[in-house]
Design goal:
The chain contains 8 helices and 7 strands, in the order βαβαβαβαβαβαααβ. The chain has 260 residues and is of the alpha/beta class. The radius of gyration is 18 Å and the shape is globular. Helix 1 crosses helix 8 (227-238), helix 3 packs parallel to helix 4 and helix 4 runs parallel beside helix 5.
């Protein structure tokens, strides 16, 4: 390998859950523009297929609907991928949910929904994808798993999003644990903990001028994340440049938690 190929991911096959919007779509586009064949999944079929059509201008993007909140849904999705691919090189676990409510009446339904999608789905997606990931990686060129955590899994967000914070904290430790267990199988496991990016989950902030102004005042870089920021970080974690990096969580927040 030459130094010029350190960030070359061309020819790889990737799966991105939650790929129909937000940072999932941003990462999918970045991979596509760098020569990766990308499968995206989400539950809302029409929206997913529209996004795949849009992203197809950048490369080979395939939409496969899937419900990642249940083991049955994950198994069905993995089986469908297996009909098309004998291996995958990259698995990005990005599907996510949030729920906000005061502690006095935070509902079990909200807790379970967030936990099922944000942490349970990551573990079982990795479990079910293991044969395809093992087929895609080796000691010199590991397959890559990238889990999407959050800075709110590292520090108190100050919002009543208890299940979200707990689940994202779990993603970080699960990433460390799985990295140690899967290293000998030729699989690297890392995570990204994003700060503020424009997405469905942050639209209450992004669409409110005063809230946006206040939040940006807490970010040393004085801006929210851009598609290039999350895509570039994902590409690094999937490229030869990071072949010796595993079990780590990259905080991508413009310096926000450094000021806490």
């Amino acid at each position: 390998m030459t130094m010029k190929s350190l960030f070359d991911v061309s020819g790889k096959v990737a799966v991105v859950s939650g790929g129909s919007s937000g940072i999932g779509a941003m990462m999918a586009r970045g991979l596509l523009e760098n020569g990766v064949k990308v499968y995206i999944t989400a539950r809302k079929v029409e929206r997913l297929e529209a996004k795949a059509k849009e992203l197809s201008q950048y490369g080979d993007c395939i939409a496969i609907p899937g419900d990642m909140s249940s083991v049955e849904g994950i198994e069905a999705f993995v089986a469908e991928i297996g009909k098309h691919e004998s291996k995958i090189d990259i698995l990005i676990n990005n599907a996510g949910a949030n729920w906000s409510a005061p502690i006095e009446n935070f509902p079990e339904q909200g807790w379970d929904k967030v936990m099922n999608i944000n942490i349970k789905s990551i573990f079982f997606a990795i479990q079910k994808f293991l044969p395809l990931l093992k087929a895609g990686g080796n000691a010199d060129d590991p397959a890559r798993i990238v889990n999407i955590a959050s800075i709110n899994g590292i520090r108190n967000s100050g919002m009543p999003t208890y299940a979200y914070s707990a689940s994202k904290s779990g993603v970080i430790l699960l990433t460390e644990h799985l990295a140690a267990d899967l290293a000998s199988s030729g699989i690297n496991v890392n995570a990204i903990a994003p700060g503020l990016f424009p997405s469905d989950m942050t639209k209450q902030i992004v669409e409110n001028e005063e809230m946006t102004k206040f939040t940006l005042s807490k970010i040393p870089r004085r801006r929210m994340g851009a598609p290039e920021d999350i895509a570039g970080t994902a590409i690094f974690l999937c490229a030869p440049a990071s072949s010796w990096l595993t079990g780590q969580t990259v905080v991508l927040d413009g310096g926000m938690i450094s000021t806490a």
